[in-house]
Design brief:
Layout lengths: L1 H25 L6 H31 L8 H15 L2 H8 L1 H14 L18 H25 L1 H11 L14 H18 L3 H18 L8 H4 L6 H7 L7 E4 L2 E4 L10 H6 L14 H5 L8 H21 L1
Antiparallel strand pairs: 1-2
Helix pairs in contact: 1-2, 2-9, 5-8, 6-7, 6-9, 7-14
């Protein structure tokens, strides 16, 4: 762990000193160098992830696809989403808008005697082993992700935004970041708050996020791969997650002869949470993806980036207006 951390830190410093810092001074942003250094780390992580996507996951998709190659127009929009996130544009927006507010809140709490604790410190001796500490935080954030994902599917206002992600009829490795920006913002704020509360080290937080994102790219790939009876229960596979995107299965649940929001296979990295809380579906099949009303009624979820963002807000306003009128 220390070796990997040192290698990453050296690469981050080189990129920061050679490219980002001179650029910051040229743009008059010398007062935000600390934020820029952090942003350089996220940029480096994103570049490494894109390399893995192109060099490893892409060839796997061509080797064993579930369906024929998706239309270029469908993939192009998802690539835009991926670049926005993996090249740090979304995180830069957070740095200059949301994170200063969150820092002020946390500072206020600390002045009131409410500070963060170190989750890994609950187990004596764990802090002496960086891998054990990392595993604890990794499990904690995957558990958080499971419940955030369930909320996205069960709270009508949040599903109005999250539907952007499920409206892709041709899933590929690029589909993971296909989200409404407000949906991503809500999740990011929760993650940052929890990270502050549980006391995860910045380097470990970056590692948890990077591992999660790269695994999600693999899970969304157009890849006919199952991990087998036991492997499917150890790690979320492309088949397991594709069922989550399946029409009428991943986002709907039968309840008293009525179809309601819900679904199956919410686990992000580990299927354990689905198994524990009764939402797992291990059916050995690869289904078509999308949303039922999109397929059966022709509901428009938008083809391009701006259309998807606009329609997501329109759906959200309709849900909120409906609740206000009840």
């Amino acid at each position: 762990m220390d070796t990997l951390t040192d290698l990453f830190a050296a690469a981050q410093a080189a990129l920061y000193e050679g490219v980002m810092q001179p650029l910051a001074f040229a743009l008059g942003l010398g007062n935000r160098l600390e934020d820029l250094f952090d942003g350089t780390g996220w940029l480096l992580v994103g570049l490494l992830q894109i390399v893995v996507m192109l060099a490893v996951i892409g060839p796997l998709q061509r080797w064993r696809p579930v369906e024929p190659a998706a239309p270029a127009s469908a993939v192009r929009t998802d690539v835009i989403y991926t670049l926005i996130h993996r090249l740090g544009l979304f995180r830069i927006a957070l740095f200059f808008t949301i994170e200063p507010v969150l820092d002020d809140w946390m500072g206020l709490l600390r002045t009131q005697g409410v500070g963060s604790f170190h989750l890994d410190g609950l187990w004596p001796g764990v802090t002496d082993g960086p891998w054990a500490s990392f595993l604890i935080y990794w499990l904690a954030f995957d558990f958080l992700n499971y419940w955030l994902h369930r909320a996205q599917h069960q709270w009508h206002w949040w599903w109005a935004l999250h539907a952007v992600h499920h409206s892709q009829r041709h899933m590929t490795q690029w589909t993971d970041n296909r989200n409404h920006l407000l949906d991503d913002l809500i999740s990011a704020v929760v993650w940052v708050l929890v990270a502050q509360v549980v006391g995860i080290a910045p380097s470990q937080f970056v590692a948890v996020v990077a591992l999660t994102q790269l695994s999600e790219n693999f899970q969304h790939a157009n890849l006919a791969v199952s991990f087998g009876k036991w492997g499917e229960r150890l790690w979320v596979s492309p088949r397991f997650h594709r069922l989550h995107h399946a029409i009428g299965l991943g986002h709907e649940t039968q309840q008293n002869a009525k179809v309601v929001l819900g679904g199956h296979n919410f686990g992000v990295l580990l299927p354990w949470w689905d198994m524990l809380f009764g939402t797992a579906d291990f059916s050995e099949r690869f289904e078509a993806t999308g949303i039922r009303d999109q397929v059966e009624q022709g509901v428009d979820y938008g083809d391009g980036f701006w259309a998807q963002q606009r329609l997501g807000l329109t759906r959200l306003m309709a849900v909120l207006k409906g609740h206000a009128g009840n």
